[in-house]
Amino acid sequence: MFGIGRGDKTLRIRQATLEDLPRIVDIGAKAFPYIREPQNFFLDRLRNFWVFVAEVDGHVLGFVDVEVKRDEAKIAGIAVDEAERGRGIGSALMSFALEFLKKLGISRVTLLARASNEPAVKMYRKFGFLQGKHIRDDVYEWYKVLR
Ligand SMILES: CC(C)(COP(=O)(O)OP(=O)(O)OC[C@H]1O[C@@H](n2cnc3c(N)ncnc32)[C@H](O)[C@@H]1OP(=O)(O)O)[C@@H](O)C(=O)NCCC(=O)NCCS
């Protein structure tokens, strides 16, 4: 668990449970409108990935999905409720995910991002991710070595 003060409120990050699925689907379907069956998609993530949610006063406002394979990991998705962006929730989720992976002994973490997704790309740069190989269209892999 992890918390940072936000005025009189506290942002807490914890592992997601099945009860969080409706909020994750709500946030995720809006953030990633190209996902075809968001209910099944995010259920599959909950079952097979590490999923952490950020909540304020019991309200889930964002999530991060992390896939771990041997000593490498992928940030498979990170999203914040549109009305709550720009307040540090995405950064808190990313910090938490990176600390979690460090504790697991993971040495390298990757993610995919569209070059046109400015908020995401700026956040990844802020966390020390470097742009890696071209995947398709304007999608690039980004990577970070964890020490
Ligand atoms: C990317 C996302 C998760 C960031 O969440 P957030 O809570 O708004 O992020 P934060 O408030 O912690 O901001 C983190 C950094 O992101 C960048 N950023 C955030 N919003 C930005 C904006 N509108 N324009 C440019 N940069 C922005 C800044 O570098 C910021 O750091 P700073 O405040 O120190 O300058 C959020 O924009 C989101 O959910 N986007 C839709 C889903 C998505 O595209 N996910 C990534 C897929 S690759």
Describe the structure.
The chain is an alpha+beta fold. The protein has one domain (2-145): Gcn5-related N-acetyltransferase (GNAT) (Aminopeptidase). The chain is 32% helix and 41% strand. The protein is built from four helices and eight strands. The chain has an eight-stranded mixed β-sheet with strand order 1-2-3-4-5-6-8-7, with helices on both faces. Strand 4 and strand 5 (72-80) form a beta hairpin. Helix 1 packs across helix 2. The radius of gyration is 15 Å and the shape is globular. The mean pLDDT is 94. The site of coenzyme A has 19 residues, from strand 5, helix 3 and helix 4.
Structural domain tally: 1
Radius of gyration: 15 Å
Strand order of the largest sheet: 1-2-3-4-5-6-8-7
Give the uncertain stretches in residue-range form.
none
Helix content: 25-40%
Q: Note the beta-strand portion.
A: 35-45%
Tally of helical segments = 4
Which structural class do you get from the secondary structure elements?
alpha+beta
Major sheet summary line: 8 strands, mixed
**How many β-strand stretches?**
8
Predict the CATH topology.
Aminopeptidase
CATH architecture: 3-Layer(aba) Sandwich
Name of the CATH first level: Alpha Beta
Give the N-terminus to C-terminus distance in angstroms.
Answer: 21 Å
Keywords for this entry:
147 residues, alpha+beta, Aminopeptidase, 8-stranded mixed beta sheet, 32% helix, 41% strand, binds coenzyme A
